[in-house]
Amino acid sequence: MSDDPLFIVMMFSLLAVVAILATGIGGFGMGGKFNAKHGNRMMRWRIIAQAVAIALILIFIALRGA
């Protein structure tokens, strides 16, 4: 399964969600100018990345019959 290209893309999308979420949470925790300027944008990107990740997971399940 780990050599399946769709699985690899799905895992990268999940890692992207985690990275965006960690950056957003870190920005909220730090506060200041970064949070004021990028806080809402980071959470919007997280939602988009999560939607892509969920779509890829559903496609993977549908195609692989798991």
TrEMBL record:
One Pfam family this sequence matches: HIG_1_N
Q: Which residues cross the membrane?
A: 6-31, 43-63
The alphabetized UniProt keywords are: Membrane, Transmembrane, Transmembrane helix
Q: Does the keyword Glycoprotein apply?
A: no
UniProt keyword Zinc, yes or no: no
Q: Where is the HIG1 domain?
A: 1-66
Which InterPro entries does the entry link to? Hypoxia_induced_domain (IPR007667)
Q: Under which name does UniProt file this protein?
A: Hypoxia induced protein conserved region
